[in-house]
Amino acid sequence: MDRRRHFFSLIALVLAAAPAAAESQLRTQNFLVHAPNAQIAEQFGRQAEFFRRQKAIEWLGQEMPPWNQPCPLYVKPTMSNGGGATSFDYRNGGYVVLSMNIEGQIERMLNSVLPHEITHTVFAHHFRFPVPRWADEGGSVLSEDDQERARHDQLCRNYLNRPGGKLPLRRLFNLKEYHEVSDVLIIYAEGFSVSEYLVNKSDRKTFLDFVSMGMRGSWDRACQTYYGFQSVEQLEESWLQHLRDTRDIARRGSNPTTVASNNVGRAPATPTGREVVRLTVPPAQPQLDPAGPIARGAAPDERRAPGVIPLGTNPRPTPPAPPAGRPSPPPPVTLGLPEFAPNSQSTPLKPGGPSPVGFQK
Fold first, then answer.
1. pLDDT (average), residues 72-84
2. Eight-class DSSP state of 186
């Protein structure tokens, strides 16, 4: 009897140790990849370095220098569409990539989730400061494949076709936390659409400079300086008209490819010390504890790190009042159902149907 008990105890220990033994680690110049096996670790290590170089050149015009310490990259293959989260620590004008977690189907992770998360690191390197959510996520979606960009374009049009579904750009630009809106996916949908429109209107360097000026409290001045619009409202009307003009293209399922020049430019940033988590797309019901860390769609059971400054507590300059004599904003746009296409009957995403990368069912 004792022998049998000892045998089964030994089997239990072997089974308990099996997952840890099966994990493979691979060190590249900038990543420490944790994956189920050596083949997957090698594949994602190679692609992570490739995207790190490619996205930096696309956005900054040059590669980023090697990080002082490798970023732990955890790869978890699943049958879901996928998702990701990247944590940063900003200190004294610098930043550290604490970790990057991605999961989903291999193909989705390689084509969408991984380049999305890598783009967050490029923005962190450029700004050295937490980026406005709409721009950080919208710019990162631009790094995803045609399938995901088209999906976000359709999602944005669906929101605009829905009565009362549009989030005014002035409010979008000044959002600090997800819980400020009832449906967080609109931040991703509109953020992508506006980012794509602005990048196609100029280039990526101009977009980064625009965000840099705007995040310091002067979105109207940023519109005037970089895009020739007198106000955020004028920019909004131009963006909406662009969506109307391209609704037939969207209905056919084509998504214009983003073309941008590779220019260098880094805007000054305010030193800060904080930990930030970027998610590819947040869970459906994010909960952000004001006393906890800044998080991109933190899950309800996420642990709060002590002593981390929440985004809302960071002093920010107040946007200047509109100058006297400025033309009044354009009248509200009537959003007829088929106005923006491709779906005349707009419905929210539901479990089991198509969803953006990382949407938690």
1. 93
2. H
